Amino acid sequence: MKYRYRAVERFWTSFHRLSPAQKESVRKVWEIFKQDPFDPRLRTHRIHRLSAAYRCTIYAVEIEGDLRSLFYLDGETVVSLIVGTHDIYRG
User: Fold this and answer.
1) Taking the domain 4-85, which CATH number applies?
2) 16: left (phi > 0), else alpha (psi -120 to 50), else beta?
C-alpha cells in the first residue's frame, strides 16, 4: 500500500529535543519507514493502552535501544505523533 505521511507539531518538538546521534538514527529509520511502516526491521507493534485511550490503533516503531516513534493510520495517511524513550507511552 502506498501511504502519505504527516507529522503533528508534537512530533517535531520531540524530534528537535533529541541528541544529534538520536536524530541521525531517526533519519536512517525514516528511510525504511517511508517505504513501509510495517517493515519487519522496524519491529512495528501496537500499543494497546494508548490505542484504547485514543480510540484508534497506535503503533510504535523501534528506532534504537529505548528510542521509539508513535504513529497511527488515518486512511492512507501515516500520522507521526511523537518520538522519544518509553516515557512517550505515558501519553
Assistant:
1) 3.30.2310.20
2) alpha
Model pTM score:
0.90
The owner of cell 507521526 is 80
Q: Which of 67, 73, 62, 57 is nearest to 88 (CA)?
A: 67
| One-character DSSP codes across 6-41 | EE-HHHHHHHHTS-HHHHHHHHHHHHHHTT-TT-GG
**pLDDT (tens digit, 9 = 90+) per residue, 19-74?**
999 999 999 999 999 999 999 999 999 999 889 888 999 999 999 999 999 999 99
H or E element in which residue 69 lies: strand 67-74
Residue that has been written with the C-alpha cell 518509553 in this structure: 86
